[in-house]
Specification:
With 286 residues, this protein is mainly α. Helix content is 40%, strand content 9%.
């Protein structure tokens, strides 16, 4: 349970939930500010159709972006009609894990990619996936996944939820711990970020009706992890996914920017959420 809104004990339905997620906010301000914020983006060489062509510009893929956002940005960078890169997925022969079932979500690695006259949608997609596989296949990642009794693919799923839910990088390990604690206890994750993915939106508000939608990404109704990643995580989120901060937390809420409260006590969570709602009303956002 992700929550920055009150969580619900078994058998009870949530009321209106209002909670911001760090990545949800970032999606709302995609553009130059967001691109500049991706300090962790790395420059990677790009396979092109014509060796020797010179770099003309770059494409920045921020941490946490969904595949749909990557496709749009790639089309724009390559000067292709909208939808071209997404269609290329079917014939790009991407070396994805079997669990992905051909869906590259989670494996379009966030980085800064050089774009040349020889860059094609397929070559760009392949190199994003190759880069993800090289990073996610590192020994410490595979060992961490094994230690947590999950697959690397499931670790990618956890990592991108961490990416979406953590208010600050320093919170990532704690958010990861909440996810692992809930999975270990057989509790539904109750993550608003997965609902946003299901509904193809980014919002600060989650209603009772939202939590009842029929979707495998509805982690209020369904226990366990969603079937695929909900975006593309960076390395810091992956490290948090394999090495959660020790703790018993089951709930969290970002009461104010930079002030996220973690607890294993439901009553305390309710008090924290009430404070969050007061802060939101006082700033005119709730």
């Amino acid at each position: 349970m992700v929550n920055e809104s009150p969580d619900v004990p078994p058998g009870r339905r949530p009321g209106r939930r209002i909670r911001p997620t760090r990545r949800g906010r970032l999606v709302l301000i995609i553009g130059a500010v967001l691109v500049l914020a991706v300090a962790a983006a790395v420059l990677v060489p790009l396979l092109t159709r014509e060796p020797g062509t010179e770099q003309s510009h770059t494409l920045v893929i921020p941490e946490g972006w969904r595949a749909s956002q990557v496709y749009v940005a790639a089309d724009k960078a390559l000067g292709e009609p909208v939808g071209t890169t997404e269609k290329a997925v079917a014939t790009a022969d991407l070396p994805l894990p079997a669990e992905a079932k051909g869906n590259p979500e989670g494996y379009l690695f966030p980085a800064t990619y050089p774009i040349t006259s020889g860059t094609t949608p397929k070559s760009l997609l392949r190199y994003m996936v190759d880069t993800a596989l090289s990073r996610f296949g590192a020994d410490h990642i595979t060992a961490g996944a094994r230690r947590n009794d999950v697959t690397v693919y499931q670790t990618v799923i956890i990592a991108v939820i961490v990416q979406a839910e953590a208010d600050t990088p320093s919170d990532m390990g704690k958010v990861s711990r909440v996810i692992h604690n809930r999975l270990d206890r057989g509790m539904p994750l109750q993550m608003d970020s997965t609902l946003n993915y299901a509904m193809n939106r980014s919002t600060l508000d989650t209603t009772t009706g939202d939590t009842k939608i029929d979707s495998p990404y509805n982690t209020y109704e369904r226990k366990g992890l969603p079937p695929t990643p909900i975006g593309n995580p960076g390395e810091q989120a992956m490290v948090a996914a394999i090495g959660p901060t020790p703790g018993r937390w089951l709930y969290f809420v970002t009461v104010a920017p930079g002030d996220t409260r973690f607890t294993d006590d439901y009553a305390e969570q309710q008090r924290n959420v009430a404070e969050f709602n007061r802060n939101r009303r006082s700033t005119g956002t709730g």
